[in-house]
Amino acid sequence: MIPPLPPSRAEPSPQPQQFDVLRLAAALVIAAVIIATLYLGQVVLIPLAIAFLISFALGPLVHWLVRHGLSRILAVSLTMALVLTVLGALGAVVALQVQSLSAQLPTYQSTIRTKIEDLGTRMQGPGFLEGALQTVDTVQKEVAEVVGEGEENAVPPQRVRVIPEPVSPLKTAMQWLAPLLAPIATAGIVLVFVVLILLDQGDLRDRLLRILGGNIYRSTDALEEASKRISKYLLMQLVVNVTYAIPMGLGLWAIGVPGWILWGTLAAVMRFIPYVGPILSAVFPLSLAFAVDPGWNMVLLTAGLILVLELVSNNVVEPLLYGSSTGLSVLSLIAAATFWTAIWGPVGLVLSTPLTVCLLVVGRYLPQLSILETLLGSSPALSRQTRIYQRLIANDPEDAIDLAEDAIGEASVVDFYNDEGMEVLRQASIDYINNARAEHRLRIANGMDDLLQEIRDEHPADLPEDAAPRVVCIAGKWEIDRQAGEMLAHSLQLDGLPAAVRAPGSITSRHVAGLELEGAEVVVLSFFSREPDAAARNLTRRIRSRWPRAKIVLGLWGVPSDELDDRRRDALGADAVVASIGEAVRRVVLLTGEAEKAAVPVEQDPQAAAARNETLKDVPLGDQDLREDLNDYAIRAADVFDVKTAVIIAIEPAHELVIGASRDLPGPRSADGRGLVLLPPHAALAARLLVDAHPLMVPDIERDPELADNDILRAWSARALAAAPVRQADGVVLGALCLIHDEVRELDEEEVRLLETLAAELAERLTGEEAAPLREPEEPVVSAKVGQQVPE
Fold first, then answer.
1. What is the mean pLDDT of the chain?
2. Contact assessment for residue 589 and residue 610, using Cβ atoms and an 8 Å cutoff
3. 216-255 vs 260-270: helix axis angle to the nearest 10?
């Protein structure tokens, strides 16, 4: 067969560029059509959008009533009656306040006139603008004289009187009623829409799912998240506004400002309008305080009250009630407010935040619109390691150092090396040939050296200066191999092990002889190459022949961790193979024998241990029905998470017991007649959760030195492990619900929360009492410069 001809280099195909241009043009046309539709259809779309947002706020109440036995029609009727009653009562109170205030306003005219005259008198004195004003007056007079000279023969102006046509009483009434009828009609349409949406919520959800199409799981998650976020946002906004309005009204009453109920209500309503609302709500009470009090005390007290309330609301109440972020950046909120105001006017400003949250959720779950999440989201567009890498490429090591210090402040030096530092080097190794220029490589090398030196200076190890190195890290080939070795050496020094670094060089007998490894207990060879086997095998063989008593650890940083196993380790002639800084530290500590000295045994609190033993003594673990029930529960957990095995473990005084499993497991059995699988103390799993009662997640057991040699896990063919504590209401850990898989696997945050929920249900099954509350989810890392505190 004749091989195909290679593509011509003289005539490259322009198809990709044309395709990108067509895509961009199509996107712009679609965006223009959508914006035009929003603008032209605002008469229909604005009431519909308001109705949907109100239904989001009232939906939880209707759902609660339906769940307690009421029909949907009755639940909607009661909800709307409650809302209308509250609004009517509030409107009646406000109307009375307005009527009373309107009757009092004429009495304040003299006070206002006196204050204005007083201000005018004070401003009549000579000021710094008086000379400029006189100059302007002089110029105006001269211009008038010049113009007058040229108009001597002009005809004097004639007075013209326009007599308007008589207007009928009906037309006059319509002119007065038209501005009032439009809001009333809009409110009526919104009310009808809200009732229909609440009555037919399920059908609307189905239609939206049909419109979204594609993956029904993803579409369902998108609708649930949008509904949850907007409902909570509106509820928290209402709570924040009410907590602002009540002290506002009471403070105005104490100061003596008339109409304090009216101004408190106005403040609660106006704060629904972002940015502008709080300013407008403050104008009215300040103006009235100016009119009422002949002096200035009332104005100053009112201004101080508003200032204090704004500071407390913005810095205490809102962060406390809102909690975590919606994921919207401040820039996107301001841009969205500007856009929706331009399209829909003041109503668009009120609706801008909820509508933008909807767009963010749609962009998160629909890959075709993922650009929306990038544009609107508050999460950094680049990961921290990518930002550090970019700063080094841009020759900005100072900014890279600041990012590194932020990461160290959130965790530790070793965690930074393990999670960010090695990723930077890994990305540099990938781009070394394909993308980087010589200048880029130099910037990365110099910048990374500066960054590592800064970290060593800021976080020195507490070791004697003359301590002989027990661990030597040798770079395999590149500068990044040496920098990885420096990270590991510093991590070991922080752990109390003296360590040194040797520069890269050729794999020759002369080079190996000059490494000075006398006295070193462990030698770590650092390689970032994707195919380091030949070089690693030769260097290992030469080092072992010259220093046979030294333990050799291969740091194959560029090789996927699932490709590192015992066979590869044996083929390379090493004592261990590691893929990360954290794993290397733990492995070296074990090889040097420091683990036994530094290890702190998991001490069970005597009171907690007694409570656990008392609880488990009352649980008939040998009962066949209970065993079958727990096995069924484990089977369900294994099916839900799609793992090979799910195991339920209970902690007894002398050992751990498998009291439920999704399949038959090998292992020693208890000799008390119950026939339960025993976990010996050296292979315990649930005891690892006793320290902080937090879930345990080990994506790759081979990369965890403490678990890699666990006999039980090897017998169960375990490669990945996830465990959540089974806790009583008082927090005492009874055992663990474990997920075990035979391949590398990691659970995301939502899956870990679900595993904790299942473990809590399991605790209730065992004890018959309410389980301990779940731990609070970790707050998302959001920059204070771009994050907006609104509900998650």
1. 79
2. no
3. 160
Beta-strand ranges (E) seen in 574-731 are 576-578, 645-651, 656-661, 677-679, 696-698, 720-727
Helix (H, G, I), strand (E, B) or coil at 96: helix
Pair 205, 63: CB distance under 8 Å = no
Q: Given 343, 361, 376, which residue is the final one in a domain? A: 376
Q: Output the CA–CA distances (angstroms, integers) from residue 554 to 391, 441, 487, in the order listed.
A: 30, 25, 15
Verify that 405 and 523 share a domain, yes or no. Answer: no
DSSP helix/strand/coil, 655: coil
Q: Residue 431 falls within a domain, yes or no?
A: yes
- pLDDT for residue 119: 62
Secondary structure in 3-state letters for 537-568: HHHHHHHHHHCCCCEEEEEECCCCHHHCCHHH
pLDDT of residue 142: 63
CB 516 within 8 A of CB 543: no
More confident residue, 12 or 215: 215
Q: Are 266 and 279 in contact (CB under 8 A)?
A: no
Kindly indicate the confidence band of residue 454, based on its pLDDT and cuts at 50, 70 and 90: very high
| 552 class by beta-carbon count within 10 Å (0-12 exposed, 13-18 middle, 19+ buried) | buried
Q: Look at residue 15 and tell me whether its pLDDT is greater than 50.
A: no
Within this chain, do residues 329 and 243 fall inside the same structural domain, yes or no?
Answer: yes
Q: Encoding tokens for residue 631?
A: 């096995």
* Whether 489 and 590 share a structural domain: yes
If one counts every other C-beta atom within 10 angstroms of the C-beta of residue 758, the result is: 20
Element (H, E) at 497: none
In the chain, the number of structural domains is 5
697 and 557 assigned to the same domain: no
Q: Is 520 exposed, middle or buried (0-12, 13-18, 19+ CB in 10 A)?
A: buried
* Percent of the chain whose predicted confidence (pLDDT) is above 70: 80
pLDDT at residue 506 is higher than 70: no
pLDDT band at 6 (very low <50, low <70, confident <90, very high): very low
Residue, of 165 and 265, whose pLDDT is higher: 265
Location of structure tokens 């962060």: 319
pTM of the predicted model over 0.85 = no
Per DSSP, 508 falls in state S
> What pLDDT shows up at residue 683?
79
Q: Alpha-carbon distance 60 to 238, whole Å?
A: 15
Show the domain range for 699. 606-767
Is the Cβ–Cβ distance between 286 and 252 less than 8 Å? no
Residue of 790 and 281 predicted with greater confidence: 281
User: Cβ contacts of residue 380 below 8 Å, gap of 6+?
Assistant: 387, 783
| Domain boundary, last residue among 564, 580, 599 | 599
- At residue 646, does pLDDT exceed 90? yes
* 694 lies in the same domain as 712: yes
Q: What residues contact residue 753 under an 8 Å CB cut-off, 6+ apart?
A: 774, 777
**Over 50: is that where the pLDDT of 7 sits?**
no
